Amino acid sequence: MTFYGGDMTGNVLVVHGGGPTPVMNASLYGVIMESRKHPEIGTVYGVLGGMEGIFKERFVNLSRLDDGELKKLLETPGTAIGSSRYPVTEEDYRKTPGIMRKYNIRYILPNGGNGTMDTCGNIYRACAAEGYEDLRVVGIPKTIDNDLAVTDHTPGFGSAARYIAASVQEVGADVRSLPIHVCVIEALGRNAGWITAASALARKKKNDAPHLIYLPERPFDEEEFLRDVKELYDRLGGVVVVASEGLKKADGTPVVEPIFKTERAIYYGDVSSYLANLVIRRLGIKARSEKPGLCGRASIAWQSPVDREEAVLAGSKALEAALEGHTGVMVGFKRTEGTEGYGIETVLIPIEQVMMVEKTMPDEFISEKGNDVTDAFVNWCRPLIGPELRDFIDFQDGNEE
Question: Which of 14, 339, 369, 385 stands 20 to 30 A from 247 (CA)?
């Protein structure tokens, strides 16, 4: 049985899932712009409020946007159509084929991370089980955490990386100016240290912040941490530490217990506050904590232009793939070889390979001691944040006269 017979005409449904990014709306822009190239596309619908909006049939016609409104998507943080962490039920999946038929939806493009890709795969299976063979489901990758499997990197990460690097660079200048304390900055990322690691791009010269980087991929040892901090404080005065929200002890338990947890979402306690207080109590050194949190996934001011362009490309290629007959896949990125400088190409990844598979930092990106990253990581990450961060003037590097 086919969904709409042999007719290629149909509508597109885009749904956002999970936490927003600074470029999530750019992927939406990419879908809409691509749809204008294909007369067989009727309407591009956006689902209001994430996955739950599908089953409540809360759809908005995005094809009606004029060029001025459409361009605003490129510089709008969050998601213009809303998102959710709604736990989709088996009953919901059973409803999906009927809803798709009602609105003549032929192409579903879920935009999200691990959980959304899992839902993407299940929607594909539910519709296939009902014999709707012409329904095409193609995932658009999204997550600041960069923890989606197979793809080289994920739209959203480059901007979050640029934000953390720039913020640490600025804090580093402050701490260097008045070197009397330790500053601990907490980075998002759950079990993956990609954002935390990206703080290394703040460095321009020797002794620049961050001075220590702690990732969730390595067990956190409080005694080693205190020794590292003390040595640096005695030598430099001011110390900047970047620590992941997902730090764990050797036994796998969190350094700070989560204060709230659902099946997918975890709200951690303040790791930065805990570590700063540890420095104060154990070392008697003034310390403070900073937790940018949502600022890092909402900052248009530090949006990476490379990230934005790739987010547009991911949306465009997802619709293009669906129109070519692909389904049950996610758009991914692969670095091109044999070219000068940075380059990528898009690939289609079977959705089963990314459903609930978490990609963490590989060993070659983590320093031997576990409190920093390697040059290999810096070289891998640098192209994703866009233009180089600015240089600051600092007379303290010169000789006094």
Answer: 385
pLDDT of residue 247: 96
Give the pLDDT score at 339: 61
Q: Check residue 114 and give its pLDDT.
A: 80
- pLDDT band of residue 8 (cuts 50, 70, 90) is low
Range name among 112-116, 202-206, 235-239 with the lowest pLDDT average: 112-116
C-alpha to C-alpha distances, 60 to 70, 102, 138, 348, 383, nearest whole angstrom: 14, 15, 20, 28, 36
pTM of the model: 0.94
Ramachandran area for residue 156 (φ above 0: left; ψ -120 to 50: alpha; else beta): left
Contact 103, 11 (CB under 8 A): yes
Closest CA to 46 of 115, 105, 123: 105
Q: What secondary structure, in 3-state letters, does 265-309 show?
A: CEECCCHHHHHHHHHHHHHCCCEEEECCCCHHHHCCCCCCHHHHH
Please identify which residue in the block is written with the tokens 């839902």: 119
Report the pLDDT averaged over residues 276-297: 95
Separation CA 168–CA 174 (nearest Å): 10
Give the pLDDT mean for 269-290: 96
Domains of the chain: 10-143+302-353 (3.40.50.450), 157-300+360-390 (3.40.50.460)
Give residue 237's region: left, alpha or beta (phi > 0; psi -120 to 50). Answer: left
